[in-house]
Each structure stands twice: as C-alpha cells, then as structure tokens.
Amino acid sequence: MRISSVSCRGPLRGPFLRNGSCLARRPFLSVSWSGKRGLLTESYSRGPLEPPLLETTVGEHFAKIVNLHGDRPAVICKHQNDRVTYAALDAKSNSLARGLESIGVRTGDRVGVMLGNSMEHAIATYALFKLGAILVPINPSFNATQVVSALAHLEASHLILSAESNLPRKDPRSNIPLLKHLVKDLSKPSIESEVVPTLKGIVLVENSSGRVNISDFRGLTAYTSLVSDAPSDRISLPPRHLSPTDIVNIQFTSGTTAMPKAACLSHRSILNNGSQIGDRMRLTPEDIVCCPPPLFHCFGSVLGYMATATHGAAIVFPAESFNARASLQAVQEEKCTALYGVPTMFLEELSLLDDGEIPNEGFQYLRTGIAAGSSVPAELMKRLHKVLNLTELTICYGMTETSPVSAMTTTDDPIDKRISSVGKLLPHVEAKVVSLEDRRQIVPINVRGELAVSGYLLMKEYWNDPVKTAEVMVADENGKVWMHTGDEASMSPDGYISITGRVKDLIIRGGENIHPLEIENCLLSYPGVINASVVGIPDERYGEVVAVFIIHREPEGELATEEKIRQWVGQKLSNHLVPKYVFFLPSTDSFPKTASGKVQKFKLRDVALDILERRGT
C-alpha cells in the first residue's frame, strides 16, 4: 500500500478529553541542521522523541480504553443499522474469541478475513488480536485463484468470509463458487481442502438476506453460532502470554497470484502507528470519524480503526464498500467530525453535492480527516475546505511495510505544505533520502533520491520470503535497518518530505496499488500475445490509470480487440486492474530496452501520451 496535531499524552499515551486536556504541540526534532536553528543541511531527519512508545499489546491497550470509555460509542455501521459501545465491543469480541477457539483457532494461527466494512469485521479484528491469532485481511474482490494463493502462501488455518461480496458500483457477488473452489465437498461435516491443505475451518457471515442458499453446506460454521450475549463475555480472556513484538497482522502488498508479498506487522507497530496518527489529527473521545476506506486495507484498519480505538473515538462505516451517497449521509446523520478518503472518493462526494443529489448541509461538525493514496490537487483541497469544512484535513504518506504511515501533516500546517508535501515524520521515525546510484549516500536537501525509513514501524519480514525481505530491508554500516520504499522523494530544510515519483513502476489508481507484473502475466496467457508491458498514465480522476502495450501475433479464429483484452483481465484478475488504454504492436516490433534487457517503461509511457494527444483523448 502507498498512502501519500501532536498532543501531549496522559497516562494512556493519548489525548482523551477535549476540555481540560493538554493539547499543546510538541516541537519536531531535526538533526544535521545548519546554523539556522532546526534547518537541515542533508536529507536526513528524525521525528519527535516524545511521547514514548507504547510497549504493550493491542488487546492490553484496548482494555484500558474500555475501562476509561466503555460507555462511549466505538463502532457505528450505518448499512447494518448497528452500533456498539466500547464495552459492548469488548464483550462481543471476547465471545467471538471463545467461539473461534472452540473451532481450533490458536495463538499464531493465520486467519483470513474476507469481509467488507461491517460489525462482524470490527468484532473479528479484536477477537483475533485477543487470541494472539494473526489477522489476515483479504480483499473481497479477490477471485478464487487469488484467495487460494493468499491462504496457501500463509498456510492459513481458518477463513472468515461473507456469503456475498458487496463491491463498489456492482451487484452483490455470491461467494459460493469461491467456497466450492476451496472445498470440493461442503456437505461433509469437516473441511477438507486440496488447494489449501492447512485450512481447518470456514466461518460464514450471512449478509445476503437469504439470496445465497447455504443450508446444505454442513462443513461451514455460522458466525452467529460462535457469538453469544452471555454475562461471561464481559470477563476478560485468560492471559495469552503475548508480546508486543508478536506478529498480529499480515497485509498483502500485492495481488500477485504466483507469490504475494505478505508484510508481517506487530502489535507494537500498528498500535503505535494508529495512536500517533490519531494524535496528529487531535482525536478525542468526542470525535466521530467517517471511514469509507476498506478495513482490508491499512487505510481503514490502522489509519481508521486503530486511530479511533486508541483515542476512545467512534468510527462510522457508511457501507460495506465505498458508496459516496452513503458516506455523505453518514456524515450528516452522525454529525461526524472527521472524514477519510482518497482523492477519487472526495471527488465523487463533491460531485453529488454539485448535482444537488445530496443537500449541501449538515457538514458543520466536520473539521479534520485524512486524504491519502495519491496527491491532493490544490483545487480539490480548497473545495474540501470550503464545501465540507475540512479545514484541518491531514495528508499521510506510507506503505504497508511501515505499518503504514511514516510522515503526516498536522491539522494546522499551511495549505501549501499539505499540497506540496506529505508532512513531517511521526515520532520515533527516521528517514533519509539516498542516492539512486549509491544507497549509502545521503543526498543534500531538496535533491531527489530514494526515500528510506527506519524505526518501530518497520514490518518484521515478508512472510516466508527472505529474499524479498532482504531486497527492501537493508542494514547500514551501524547495523540500523532501513526500509527502502522505492519512492522518489526530496526533503526540505525544515523537514517536510515531498514524494516526487516512484523508483519502482507501481501504479496508483484511486489509492489502490497496481503492480504491472500481475497484469503482464495475465496478458501473456492470452492467445497470441508474445509480450506485454504495463505503464501508468496520468488521469485527472484517478491520479493514474493502466495502459498496456501488447506485441501479438493473431491466432487462428477471432482477432484480439481492446474490449476482449479488458474482458480477459477483468475475468482473470480484479476489476481495478482492467486497463483503460490498450495499444497493439505487430509481432515484428519490440519494446525499448536497456543494455541489460530491461524494458524502458518511461519511453512506452511517452509513446502512450503522444498517441492519446494525437487522438485528442
């Protein structure tokens, strides 16, 4: 994942009361400065050393929040007409934890959770954290091949999924075909999967209102059978002897079907990251955060759920997946004080207001939020200030491997800083911009290079992939490990970081990471395709869109067309990977390459832009 206000803390490391609490800003610390106080001379900076890091597990910290704010609203699911307080969330997650334990979930087990934004997802998150099992969020849009690849790679023991996947702007998709792909005979009382041999149990959340018939599937465990309202649920689970450094969350950074990269995040990393994000937004228990981004993504789970839960604030899920109308209505009805989104989400919401489909009122309680995923154009930022009252909107930068946020603006940074930069480093985080030719060389200020970060927020590893881990996590001469982001960046004298491009070829479409290799491999399986290369093309709406170049020979039968290529990708992969532009080259052509044989994608991108300009597109 790429995602493109500090208060003094009380005993729980967070600002819990708006009135009477200490909300004075702490100064940012910078090193390697010049004669002018605090100004950097080279592109290295360090975030504040205060407040101290939380050295506890997520479950232990959550228990403190429940003790302080048990009667405060914790989760509000508008589409389910359901809401829980922190005390109720604690009890329900205790109940589900006991239920999951009864079907064999143990500490350290990898449990896939393939759900939309829902109460079940919110409860399952803390149930797994309390058990010491490892939460593995899976994108509900994944097809059977992608799900099997993810579960098999992690040797998952259990899967929690919904009867239907509700995707943006699409009809509900039944997950019965997926289940039948995983388990050939669901009529048996136990789960036997040839494609994921470690799979011992499947928990089904019935969200189809009876549209999906599962009455004959004896091997499935109903989610409702694992939860109860017994008074014992209010009693804490027995100690699990967990460590803050234990892996608690595995996030996939790529949808690659062959070998997905699975970033292993600890209690310590996501707990502190969520807490610091909330601090920089100045969240308190009185805040109500509307969170349209998905829980299967770090944006929803850490920037959203973990940030609110560490501050006793409420989080609102308008719908299972993004719905602009539902998001605006949730803000109005719940009097939300914060709104999250990627630029494409905000644009769609503003469009509804422009067209008069949603009354332009009821946004006076909004003050802050997070925009991430791609850069926010100046005009959009101004409209968000004016129309939605998001005068304290913050900008985040990070990646899944850093739990995820490393830099963030404050609520009172000047608007030009929120447009031109991703802010300064979070506490206890270090960053440097290094030469693309020599990673050991830190570049001068305002010079572009590759951004590298270090600190508590680094992932432990890519699951079962030491080679890929070693490629991005590199120790310096002093033994300090740095995460090399693959992003091109520069650092200003006062420590603001600007992302200027990507060293890697990652495409970011509306905040979603797209890896060209996945699409290229898919295209190479299309009849007659000899070679394929995928590049990102600038787009006003999505930031970037996918363009593909195909070298092909026509096989016998029907000719390849742009539409057939799009259909092929849509059927084999997720819909957001479908290319907007398709360019065909004859079999006698070849892609521009370096001397070492690597395709020069920047030249292909220039060709695409030239073609589109001549077309008037």
TrEMBL record:
InterPro entries: AMP-bd_C, AMP-bd_C_sf, AMP-dep_synth/lig_dom, ANL_N_sf. Residues 518-598 form the AMP-binding enzyme C-terminal domain. One of its GO terms (biological process) is fatty acid metabolic process. PANTHER family: ACYL-COA SYNTHETASE, AMP-DEPENDENT SYNTHETASE_LIGASE DOMAIN-CONTAINING PROTEIN. Residues 65-463 form the AMP-dependent synthetase/ligase domain. Pfam families: AMP-binding, AMP-binding_C. GO terms for molecular function: medium-chain fatty acid-CoA ligase activity. It comes from the Eukaryota. This is AMP-binding enzyme. It comes from Aspergillus sclerotiicarbonarius (strain CBS 121057 / IBT 28362).
